[in-house]
Amino acid sequence: MTSSARILFAHDDRAFGRTLTWLLSEHEYQVTSTTAGASIFEPLGNESWDLLVLETTVGADGLDLLGRIKSDDRFQDLPVLLLSTLPPEEGSVEAFGLGAADFLTPPFRAREILARIKAHLRAGRALNRARAEARSRAEMVGILREIASSLTPEEIFQILVRRVAQGLGISKCSILLRTPDPATAVVVAAFENPVLRNLRVDLERYPEIRRALETGEIVLSDSVESDPLFTATREAWRIEGQVVETTSTLAIPFTIRDEPLGVFYLRTSGEDAVLNLVDVQFADQVIKSAVTSIEKAYELKDVVDGHRKLRELADTDPLTGLANRRALERRLVRDLEQAAKYSTVLSCLMIDVDHFKETNDTFGHQMGDLILSQLASMLKREQRAIDMVARVGGEEFCILLPLTGSNGARILADRIQRRVNTEAFGDESQAVKLTVSIGIASFPDDRARDGAALLQLADTHLLKAKTDGRNRSRD
Q1: How far is CA 223 from the centre of its chain?
Q2: Strand order in 6-11's β-sheet?
Q3: Which residue from 92, 156, 211, 448 lies 20 to 30 Å from 264 (Cα-Cα)?
Q4: Hey, which residues does 200 pair with through a beta bridge?
Q5: Predicted TM-score (pTM) of this structure
Q6: Mean model confidence pLDDT for the chain
Q7: H or E stretch including 52?
Q8: Which pLDDT score is estimated for 126?
């Protein structure tokens, strides 16, 4: 704050008045001292002030004077810091109801008074240039426009924490979503750490967030050092030897589709001015304005997820969980195009369980389904991240092997046959031995110029393996 800040200090206690006047002057504020009574209206009306500090030894008199000041249209926008002997809970409710910007009770600490004065001067002098920009209609429109151009809730959350933190000039702003466990919440966005995602936190350490989630009401603590809400938390910090730099906090709960979703969480520390009611109004306005966009983003996310799930169902074999033939053929088109474009190789294995009809007839279809699922699991364990395993019908499977030539395909086929030969399929009551036959086809090959031809060539080689006695591979 520069030396141009003008403060009118009205007081009852002369000694305290001299001390605070000296202190404010030492911090380069332009201070005018007067008595806290009817005579205050003369200096109030004669000059322009950035802040009124009102100290009264009789609490009721201070509230009466505050009410008279705020009832005058000329002073409705003037921030007033009331220093009163009233009990904190009763006095704060009355003071804020009458229009005070802040309220303090004894013992008065110089550092705290200076911090609050700094905050209210910043917010009160024409709403402060930095904050006025954030609160201006153009800024709000800019925030909403940026939000509207985002497609996911996660993107919107990142925008909100960044724009609000920058607008208020604070260093810490985050969004937490509630979890089924009322004792925890998940951080989904944090201005102070943009890469932070889905960090679960224990709300025992954050009583203001817990209260906001439980009550659905805004929780503002302008002094973490003295707020009774933090009594247990401060004791835990003391025992742990933890130095906490947070000076004030603000937790604003918000709902989506009429259901509580999470909390908009702001904190100040160090040289940040403490959070006040002006900050509450701005942050609350931002989050309420953003709710519609968040709801639409969640709706879009639900639609996209629904389409994805439907596509997965359409592309998945219900018995084994593998890709089905439809998905295989679509993937094969893509991989062949890549192989042709970059002059790479591609192979596929067509795998068929030998004598599976007899196995089904002997042990039953339920056992047959179990065996196919077990074989599918074995094949998935053999695949690389770039491979695809599919069930293409009945007891027939296919493994697509990008960047793999015929030699690599033969090595994998031999390994699969050894694994199948030594594996006991079935269940504890009935172990079943299996063998498989495998046909191998590779691209490039004049006989396999497209996906259908490649699968047909692998089928042809599979039939040859069957004809040659089964339990073998052919290419």
Answers
A1: 27
A2: 30-35, 6-11, 51-56, 80-84, 102-104
A3: 92
A4: 186
A5: 0.45
A6: 84
A7: strand 51-56
A8: 47
Residues forming beta bridges with residue 83, ordered by sequence position: 55, 104
Crossing angle (nearest 10°) for helices 365-382 and 356-363: 130
User: Residue holding tokens 């031999």?
Assistant: 414
> What is the C-alpha separation between 51 and 118, in angstroms, rounded?
10
**Tokens 């005018």 -> residue:** 32
Contacts of 98 (CB under 8 A, 6+ apart): 63, 66, 67, 70
Which alpha helices (H) appear in 126-273, and where do they start and end?
A: 129-135, 137-148, 153-168, 207-215, 231-240
Residue 396 has pLDDT above 90, yes or no: yes
**Domains parsed from the chain with CATH numbers:** 6-126 (3.40.50.2300), 132-304 (3.30.450.40), 325-474 (3.30.70.270)
349 pLDDT more than 90: yes
Are 32 and 56 in contact by the 8 Å Cβ rule? The answer is no
Per the CB < 8 A criterion, the answer to whether 31 and 24 are in contact is yes
Mean pLDDT, residues 362-379? 90
If one counts every other C-beta atom within 10 angstroms of the C-beta of residue 350, the result is 27
- Give CA separation, 292 vs 17, 136, 147, 281, in Å: 50, 20, 10, 18
Q: Average pLDDT in the 207-233 region?
A: 91
pLDDT value for 211: 93
Lowest-confidence segment of 2-6, 159-163, 196-200, 279-283 by average pLDDT: 2-6
CB 148 within 8 A of CB 28: no
Asked whether the bond before 88 is cis by omega within 30 degrees of 0, the reply is no
Angle at 101 between CA 254 and CA 47, to 5 degrees: 145
What DSSP element (H or E) covers 181?
none
pLDDT for residue 125 is more than 60: no
pLDDT, position 216: 92
Which pLDDT score, from 0 to 100, does residue 149 have?
Answer: 63
Q: Given the structure tokens 């702001």, which residue do they identify?
A: 266
Strand 425-427 to strand 430-432: parallel, antiparallel, or no bridges (unpaired)? antiparallel
Burial 25-64 (b: 16+ CB within 10 A, else e): eeeebebebeebeeebeeebeeeebbbbbbbbeebeebbe
What are the φ/ψ torsions at residue 2 (nearest 5 degrees)?
-85, 170
What pLDDT was estimated at residue 439? 94
Residue in 137, 102, 58 with CA at minimum distance from that of residue 222: 102
Of 464, 460, 462, 458, which Cα lies nearest the Cα of 329?
Answer: 458
Q: What backbone torsions phi and psi does residue 266 show, to the nearest 5 degrees?
A: -120, 145
Rounded to a whole number of angstroms, the CA Rg of the chain reads: 36
